Amino acid sequence: MNIEDIVLRKKADILRRGASLIMETYSVNASTFFKDQKDPFANPVGYTISQGMEAIFDTLVRDEANKRALDFLDRIVRIRAVQDFTPSQAIGFLFSLKKVLREELQKELQENSMYEELLLLESRIDNMALVAFESYMKYREKVYGLKVKEFKNMAFRLLEKANLISDIADEEAAVIKNDTRAENMK
Amino acid sequence: MSDVLKPAELSKINYKPPRKEWMKTPVNFKHGMYIYPAKAKNLKYLDMPNPREWSPTDKDWKLPENWKEIVLEGMRERLGKYRSFKIFMDICVRCGACADKCHFFIGGGDPKNMPVLRAELLRSIYRGHFTKSGKIFGSLNGARELTVDVLKEWFYYFYQCTECRRCSVFCPYGIDTAEITMMGRELLNLLGCNVNWVIEPVANCYRTGNHLGIQPHALMDMFEMMLDDIYDRTGIRVKPSFNRKGAEILFVTPSADYFAEPGIYTCMGYLVLFHELGLDYTWSTYASEGGNFGLFTSHEMIKRLNAKIYAEAKRLGVKWILGGECGHMWRVMHQYMDTMNGPADFLEEPVSPVTGTKFENAKSTKMVHITEFTADLIRNNKLKLDPSRNDSLRVTFHDSCNPARAMGILEEPRYIIKNVCNNFYEMPENTIREQTFCCAGGAGLGTDEMMETRMRGGLPRANAVRHVHEKYGVNRLACICAIDRATLTTLMEYWVPEVKVTGVHEMVGNALVMEGEKERTLTLRGDPLKETEGEVNV
Questions:
Q1: Are B190 and B48 members of one domain?
Q2: Nearest to B420 by CA among B442, B395, B457
């Protein structure tokens, strides 16, 4: 029996504990709500985490880049990037999966000395963490980009409306493009 | 001690937050989750207390020496003045029905964003200082002393509430948490603890009539640009009038409709509609703001800023007032204006000059919402509409908190949308109508420094939009609120970038077949009217 089979057999327990560890990064009130409310629209955070963990689990066991799992990982990180977390807290939930695996598989690991296989499994978690890091940075940059965009939009429109700037209209640009003088300047 | 952890320490990270009682957990101000304080010059202009330079992250908030006395006296005064406040302080049984209904809690998980706990921030002080049992039993009775830390907590959490009132839909007692937030903010205002995103528009409004401080000549320039764009799209030169005495109707809309995208397209929608009807109406460069950030400041300020509406209607001698697409503006007009600045006995009961319909619901305020007006036009077959012009749009409708929950304007916008476009899809039931999820940028929170709070608070709304986007290919989110048009645009860019935001009258303007128009190839936004072949607009 290889490690994947054991992990698959214990899927329910591992998933439950894995999801539970993420939920516990929130306050008691929030984690209870995130766990208990099953309606995806009343509880988008809890729903995304529980669905996402299952998809991530499947990818870990099968070792194939599964689009669904990557989508869910991206969704979870997108949420945690704007919640009350430091960067390490935001994506650290993936590493807590290692803890769950080690504890759940302790007996089998010792009996069958499967440490090498465990290392392989854990490397997959590390890879997922790198992907999560990419997502995290993408969304943090997005947040900063949105701040700048809101600010720029407001300032620009005000300047434009107050006739303080003269922007090049599309038609003007078209005229210049077709102008032979422009050709001659090449 | 160094901030850099050693490797051994790093590996011992515990991701569980500490388990502490909420009363003993002081607030920690983090960037992205609080709003910058009001500038002293704005407070001075409004003659509001304690103008100064300060930051919420400062240890010393430069409070007046007798700050405690001011707050407690302020509470005493309001408990006597507002019966609802007294009742809301007394009757909560902490059943928890509201706890998981706030978008900020659902999206962020901070327990102090549970409406019950947000209210407890104030209620605990009420118990500690105003009830016998609280004075005797202290924290056993959920009571506590008023301290600077409590004040900081108020500032943080009362400016993390959008006063959307979703929680009160679920409260068996009907406790209106928005009113508790309003009281909390009023008390903070007594100490000069307020935010610039609210106070600056208030000061500008008080000075020039609108949030941005736009003066009449600049306002006219803005309209010139919109009118040029309308000419470009339709071939028709629309000529609205301003400050015209003797017009039948005064039209008032939020100033965001004149200057901000996508609000300007909604404004262009109003302009073409009124032109086509030949409506005898006027704009005002003084009552040039329907929005009223006094609602996010104090009752006294709502009244001060709102006074211009009836005053201008009287000066111009109009018969009644028509209001544009706005959320909180409508709450003020509908629920406060008449009591605060009425009776408007110099105006007449509104009657549509096109259909003859009497708007009996506006008998007292004399002000009609534009979706009521337009829905009535369509119902009476007075508009020539070509909904296929909006065929590139697959639309869903976001019920804005104030019109939906406070005024029950639920059917009119839907009726209009279904008549001006062919592809309309509802979001899930528990996210619309009375149960609608807030944009998370209302009540003065829609500023860029508040981005993280806005994004997580807006998650429940965005999540439902993503659902209809994935299921039906929805690419347009319609709403009837100026704050929504601004904040949902940013929210969508973060969560569902494929979906853009629109006002309802922008789509009316696109579908409206106008007399003498040229062949339309562009929408009011300047986008091609028809999808080009091979392009999938999803």
A1: yes
A2: B395
pLDDT single digits (tens) B346-388: 999 999 999 999 999 999 999 999 999 999 999 999 999 999 9
Domain membership of residue B441 (yes or no) is yes
Q: Report the number of distinct structural domains present in chain B.
A: 2
Its pTM stands at 0.93
User: Among residues B270, B271, B183, which one has the least CA distance to residue B227?
Assistant: B271
Evaluate whether residue B214 is within a structural domain.
yes
Cis (ω within 30 of 0) for the bond into B37? Answer: no
Interface of B with A (CB under 8 A): 13, 15-17, 19, 30, 32-33, 99-100, 105-111, 114, 212, 218, 221-222, 225, 259-261, 428, 430-431, 448-449, 451-452, 455-456, 459-460, 463-464, 467, 490, 493-495
Answer yes or no: is B8 within a domain: no
For residue B109, which residues of chain A lie inside 8 Å, CB to CB? 26-27, 29-31, 33-34, 45, 83-84
Residue B120, domain extent: 22-194
Tens digits of per-residue pLDDT, B81-104?
999 999 999 999 989 999 999 999
